[in-house]
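Ligand-bound model needed. 0WD.
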Amino acid sequence: MSALLDGKSALVTGVANKWSIAYAIAAAFQREGAKVYLTYQGERQQRTVEDIAADLGVAGILQCDVASDAAIDEMVARLPFERLDALVHSIAFANREDLSNPFSQTSREGFATAHDISAYSLVALSRALGPKMTAGGSITTLSYLGAVRVIPNYNVMGVAKAALEACVRYLASDLGASGIRVNAISAGPIKTASARGIKDFSKVLDGVAAVSPLKRTTDPAEVADSAVFLASDLGRGVTGNILYVDAGFQVMGLQKPE
Ligand code: 0WD
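Prediction:
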């Protein structure tokens, strides 16, 4: 059987360690025959990402702090792919205090930072990499239910995810004429380094397992397989979409009475 991403090149951002959702996505892309490059934020992640790259057998790694347009341009200049087919944006950041203080206490600076790193970076990367998608392409980002519902302690990150999902729709409209599709996967909660920054995160996992239609939490491999679908030709008619991969949690209103 041929692999779903045979002959495709992909850039996967946001691998910080083996628990990162982007790690599972990079592994699935490799499995499906894509040629993969990873980016990492800075020196703090470099060693780990070098080891991960060797383990996965990806084509290479490049540094890219998405807070800087110059760093993005430098990364794009170094990316050896003549043609890029898929971009995965798996990056988010908010100040820790903004994930524990009441939302109304969010500072101007904390609000701007969360939006810059978690939402604007998708626009910046799409703008810089779009010209490399000469045969069309697929851009996939990662969102969360906090974009559309109030999730305790998600706070400014929920507002940034709402902006991210709106960016998906506007980018899809902008880039569609070039054959570039833009989608988000809204993943159920998964225990990663970022998630640990959210107060009472393990209670969220327990709640999801109890309430979701599938009666369990989300496995990163399920998110990764949906990312494969979106990047592959099977996803060719899908753009501007928010695909929930969350064991069905978002459809529930009230929990069934016991
Ligand atoms: O429950 C979860 N874990 C969910 C995560 C549910 C639904 C969505 N998501 C989203 C996150 O919001 C994020 O957008 O998935 C994406 C990936 O998150 P993750 O895999 O949970 O977290 P993690 O492994 O921490 O990767 C996020 C990485 C950063 O990791 P650290 O731990 O070092 O903050 O985003 C990267 C960084 O590697 N990152 C940056 N990369 C480049 N430039 C930057 C930056 N300025 N800031 C953060």
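The pocket of 0WD is lined by residues 14, 16, 19-22, 41, 45, 64-67, 90-93, 117, 142-144, 187, 189-190, 192-195 (CB under 6 Å).
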